[in-house]
Automatic annotation (TrEMBL):
It comes from marine metagenome. Keywords: DNA recombination, DNA-binding. Pfam families: Int_N (PF24624), Phage_integrase (PF00589). Belongs to the 'phage' integrase family. This is Tyr recombinase domain-containing protein. The lineage of its organism: unclassified sequences, metagenomes, ecological metagenomes.
């Protein structure tokens, strides 16, 4: 592949001709190069499948335009996909293009750069007591998902979220030095919250037991981490879990 690109660069410089770059060529090489350094690799693969469903493997990225981006947005909306998800999918494609520009000397335009849909929140639907119980039971069973299983921490994560009302990002970034078990509370500083306002969250008996369980589990695994919820996969062991 490297030899092929060197030949293409020489031809481009000699004849001022930019080779055609396909969607599949870009994404396969980007995913391969970043697999060892991105914790979101599996998520990137899933988002690539969604992008591929629209563009197809042979789409020539040299021709990518704003109209293609708009058509993709409309297509995904027609499928009932949220603007937040669409933003993440297009962000992946934009990042891959930028990677190719900076590392492979591909002369591609990037009409996605700077384009972001407004992510409207709500309307919210609250889980019933029965739905919450069923969700906790299913999370605790470690059911198979794709090529793996539901993470073992998921049950604790769900219970803590239900009993504190914290957002997923607030819990995923929660550090032990902001957990006060003695006074049964956790501290969220402005930089940790979506509203950019600090707040203290009280812990009831169920929430406190979850945190104690996380401490016991991390001690059992000899995990030295500042985070309440951390990766158990050997590749990212002890690191923060991304959203």
């Amino acid at each position: 592949m490297e030899a092929k690109w060197k030949d293409e660069i020489w031809n481009q410089q000699a004849f001022d001709v930019e080779p055609e770059r396909s969607f599949m060529e870009l994404m396969l090489n980007y995913l391969t190069e970043t697999a060892a350094v991105k914790r979101s690799h599996d998520t990137d693969v899933n988002r690539t499948r969604n992008l591929h469903g629209f563009f197809g493997k042979d789409f020539v990225l040299n021709n990518l335009s704003k109209s293609h981006v708009s058509e993709y947005i409309n297509s995904r909306r027609d499928d009932g996909v949220s603007d937040k998800t669409i933003n993440k999918e297009l962000s992946l494609l934009s990042t891959a293009i930028k990677h190719a520009q900076e590392n492979w000397e591909w002369n591609l335009s990037n009409p996605i750069s700077g384009k972001r849909l407004e992510e409207l929140e709500g309307p919210y639907r609250f889980l019933s007591r029965e739905e919450a119980k069923a969700l906790i039971v299913e999370a605790g069973e470690g059911l198979p998902v794709g090529n793996g299983h539901l993470p073992k921490y998921l049950k604790d994560f769900i219970i803590l979220g239900l009993h504190t009302g914290c957002r997923s990002g607030e819990l995923l970034g929660l550090e032990w030095n902001r957990v006060d078990l003695q006074n049964s509370r956790i501290r969220l500083e402005a930089k940790h919250t979506k509203s950019k306002k600090a707040r203290t969250v009280p812990l009831n008996r169920n929430a406190r037991e979850v945190l104690l369980n996380r401490k016991r589990e991390q001690a059992r695994q000899s995990m030295d981490t500042p985070y309440v919820f951390a990766h158990t996969n050997p590749r990212w062991f002890g690191q923060r879990i991304g959203e």
